UniProtKB/TrEMBL annotation:
The keyword Glycosyltransferase does not apply. Keywords: Methyltransferase, RNA-binding, rRNA processing, S-adenosyl-L-methionine, Transferase. The keyword S-adenosyl-L-methionine applies. Specifically methylates the adenine in position 2030 of 23S rRNA. Pfam families: RsmJ. The record marks 4 as: Interaction with substrate rRNA. It comes from Pseudoalteromonas holothuriae. This is Ribosomal RNA large subunit methyltransferase J. Transmembrane segments: none annotated.
């Protein structure tokens, strides 16, 4: 039974680090003329209304995108990201794009997008939000398995976002296992796994599983708005990227310290780590 709805969380600090990394990777893919595939294993609805009852109930976006809306700083990565979100809005902040709508911006005529979603309501919304382009394919199927059916892609160039809800605790090991299976078929793809820090031990185990897997060139980027605690929900989140663009670490070196200052009280921190060398 699926109960997770991303509409409660859209635009929160976790979306910010996830979508900053995603946009960087996608932009990098477009630097070559050759077509590529984008595979979104857990897509969500694609676009979120921040005035909806769900978003208003938690108001998580107030701790995330709302704090960046008037950003006037120096970081070009942050300026580009805020401008991207602004392009889905008029004057004021009313919509937040999910990973599919962000990806759509970077998918050209020669590229293909694959979007998996299992929740019936979010699938319907996703279909509505993504209709129009023939190169964008929405599938109401399990994204873990769907990924394996798509690699290696004919284009031989692909980036993959795996962003499960982690409602089921086995999602942590399942994510690592499925990425590793896909990598064995297609080792040159760029794989991004999003993770929440609710219980640090789970993340330590996820990292160790990936380190022990034999996959090369793995980087980790984490944004914490609070110190670790097991007393209440998510305190941090991150992206683990396998075969990242060589430009990603430098961009995150610049952006993460500033994001901690902008989004956390006193106790936030960031992590940037090369988990496995090239
Ligand atoms: N990637 C989205 C974004 O950045 O906007 C958010 C995705 S949300 C964290 C996770 C989504 O995965 C939920 O909409 C949930 O219904 C969906 N889901 C859960 N299990 C799934 C599965 N096995 N295959 C595909 N989608 C799944």
């Amino acid at each position: 039974m699926l109960s997770y709805r991303h509409s409660f969380h859209a635009g929160n600090p976790a979306d910010i680090i996830k979508h900053l990394v995603l946009a960087h990777v996608l932009e990098y893919m477009t630097r070559k003329e050759a077509g590529y595939d984008y595979i979104d294993t857990h897509s969500g609805a694609g676009l979120f209304e921040l005035n909806s009852a769900d978003a208003q109930k938690t108001q998580e976006y107030q701790q995330g995108i709302a704090k960046l809306w008037e950003y006037q700083g120096e970081s070009s990565a942050l300026v580009d990201y805020v401008n991207l979100i602004k392009s889905f809005n008029n004057e004021s902040l009313a919509f937040y794009p999910g990973s599919p709508k962000i990806a759509e911006r970077y998918l050209r005529r020669q590229d293909k997008g694959w979007f998996f979603e299992l929740h019936p309501k979010d699938l319907q919304l996703l279909e509505q939000n993504m209709q129009g382009k023939k190169s964008l394919r929405v599938r109401g199927e399990d994204g873990f398995k769907g990924l394996l059916g798509l690699v290696p892609p004919a284009s031989r160039r692909a980036c993959i976002l795996m962003d499960p809800p982690y409602e089921i605790k086995t999602d942590y090991q399942q994510a690592a296992l499925m990425i590793n299976k896909a990598y064995k078929r297609f080792s040159s793809g760029t794989y991004m796994i999003w993770y929440p820090v609710v219980d640090r031990q789970r993340i330590d185990l996820l990292e160790q599983t990936l380190i022990d897997s034999g996959m090369k060139n793995i980087q980790l980027f984490e944004l914490a708005t609070e110190q670790d605690t097991q007393l209440h929900g998510m305190t941090a989140s991150g992206m683990i990227v396998i075969n990242p663009p060589w430009t990603l670490k430098k961009a995150m070196d610049e952006v993460l310290p500033e994001l901690v200052e902008l989004l956390s009280q006193d106790s936030g921190f960031f992590r940037i780590q090369q988990l496995v060398d090239e």
